[in-house]
Fold:
Amino acid sequence: MRSPARLALNNGVQMEALGFGLYKVPPQDADALVATALGEGYRRFDTAAMYGNEVGVGRGIGGAIGDAAEANTGTGAGGSGESVHTLSREDVFVTTKVWNDDQGYDTTLRAFDTSISNLGLDYVDLYLIHWPCAGRGLFVETYKAMETLYREGKVRAIGVSNFQPAHLEELMQKAEVVPAVNQIELHPWLQQTRLRTLHEQLGIRTEAWSPLGRGHVLADPAILALSEKYDRTPAQIILRWHLQLGNLVIPKASSAGRIKENIAVFDFVLDDADMDGIAGLERHHRTGSHPDNVN
Ligand code: NDP
Structure:
């Protein structure tokens, strides 16, 4: 296998290359979906204060690791059958993000306290600035608060999301800790070549949000042709492409079948010609907002 299932961040912290995304997962469904994903082998979860489902995510994880479930629900409920209580906290990797309205030093520290309380965890594995919101002029201060959390051991790694090259360059001039990750929209129709190159130069991992283009890229004729060639689903072809590029990837799915399908991507390899073929699908097509338009 060319792509390892785990990748090291610039501070040595290891994370699973493939995790589970929870944007638009209703709070009441998060617990069960996380439990299902844990049962299928996912060990990494991507949420955010803005998603409104941190409590449910924490319960799903807590059901599998025991103590946190008691802290969060008092019952230990929410696990997925056999996986309940078989994992320790260290086996699971949780990312959450500070929302735009909480940017600023003190407000970020408070937002973090709310997030870990919602999650029922003692620490978060990766804490990200959700959007740069450059118009607010607060992302450096926000990041300074995250550096404090990092030094205090409340987060194992810190990073950013939706940062454009100019935002990264400004941050790098003022930050003491190089961001471990920049989580950006990335899929075959939006390949983010410039940012990926910059990340490599700076030692920042690229994490792909909407890795399937919110499902739209699954119908691309070239992806369908590869699906037939490799006898894999379109989602598996795209996720495999991400992994071979070295991207961290967090597909979201709502059914047990798709959750299972999306992690079954570690037993085949796309050949170089097909990787090049997917590189040719670039359309500069965004399914989400452009970072300059979010403030
Ligand atoms: P994805 O690219 O992961 O696509 C999700 C969509 O694809 C859903 O409609 C899902 O359907 C469908 N899907 C998933 N698997 C399959 C499959 N095997 N076959 C067919 N359809 C499938 O989009 P997201 O926008 O959810 O991005 C993933 C994660 O990235 C988010 O959940 C979130 O954690 C993160 N994110 C971060 C952002 C940021 O600003 N930092 C912004 C947006 C996302 P269904 O749910 O019905 O199964």
Observations:
- Confidence is low (pLDDT under 50) at residues 67-84.
